[in-house]
Hints:
Sc_DH/Rdtase_CS, single chain, oxidoreductase, alpha/beta
Amino acid sequence: MMKTVVITGAASGMGLAASKLFLEKHWxxxxxxxxxxxxxxQCLGLQKQGYTEVYFQWCDITKASxxxxxxxxxxxxxxxxxxxINNAGIWRGGELHxxxxxxxxxxxxxxxxxxxxxxKYFVPHMIEQGGGTIVNTASVSGLNGDHQMAAYNAAKGAxxxxxxxxxxxxxxxxxxxxxxxxxxxxxPMFLANPxxxxxxxxxxxxxGRICTPKEVxxxxxxxxxxxxxxCNGINLxxxxxxxxxxxxxxx
Length: 251
């Protein structure tokens, strides 16, 4: 039986890479994004490449009523959802006292509340069907701190610990919940930075380069599939080892 995955933030970057990878692995893919035009275009582009089991639904995943509708659509049309990839996210920088309340609220809505809502409306069906997997996009910025990224660190830190609570609660239902924790990734958004900024991030990484969306997608697929059947509640860095350094100088 063909498996089905729902991917948020699927119109670009890591979500788009994941959509294509799951299709390559012969899964059915429901792409979710708040950018309707781009989402429709990317879905159509994948269909033109020969992938017939890919679909798109617009959704503001910070709104309970809209997430509920997407959940109803998914289970009504596909019967079973084997995995949910909570990938949608945004970034805001600044020290805490510089952070606007509206930016703080938006960051937590998109990066944290959306995971709450997607899980709230998909998990009951997963319990009924006997299991499934959830994969959230956290960040190395949830595992450690960054300069001038207070709100983002706080939001991704919430996701890093949320996965542990969900894994404890839902393991008994055969629902595994895990996180991928990318460092800077070569998405269109990141690559819009000046070359000097990109070069700094490349040089700071032990591998000498930032990760790619395909590499993050591979980690998502691993955690969503039976290949990770005993992984539950983990935060998997996809970072090239960026977070390993204590910060101390070479002696």
